Give the backbone structure.
Amino acid sequence: MTTAAEHPYWPRSLPLPGYVAAALPGWQCAGLVGVAAAGLLAVGWLLGGARGVASRSHAHRLALGWFLMCAGIHGVLEGFFSLRHRDLPRATGLLADVWKEYAKADSRYMTSDDFTVAMETVTAWAWGPLSFLTFLALLRRHPARYILQLLVSLGQLYGDVLYFATEALAGWSHSDPRPLYFWGYFVGLNGVWVLVPCALLADSCRHLAAAQRALDRPRHKSH
């Protein structure tokens, strides 16, 4: 059985049978994920301003990049965790190393914690595909685009609130207390999925309310 001295996770007494340390250093894992996420964000932004596409505001082009990035992160990273969570401590490879680095901020990912597995499974197989569908709907100006934007953003926000709440109830006991891991990884990264969905929810509500207001406006009969 793995002893406290053989892994970097909190609490230090956490047993991880068969744990295999990550091959890549943490900065490389974080850097690769950051580059991939930035690339998807940039692709969405560029497609939103492509020639022949109706003019969009900077905010809406950022929304396109956001949902494309979410589709990649949810589908690839969280999809991997959903499928491989049971053997993650022993797993090797790039995606396993990425999760081993993030787990320094939340060791529940190393122990197949019931809530974490359920939340990430829903995120991977529901919000991942729906994020890509929302990206396509926004790109093509589909009439349902703001309904999809509202649905995905509400789901992301709800999952993140529960994620923070369950760890708060556990006394913040699963995170390395050093600033990089607690404030950078745990609070900072996950906080993005609180702030951005809140902004997109407000945007969805504004557009849907405007559409309903126009529909409710009295129509004058033509003579």
Summary: Residues 35 and 41 are 10 Å apart (CA to CA). Helices lie at 26-48, 58-84, 94-102, 114-139, 145-169, 179-216. The chain has a mean pLDDT of 92.
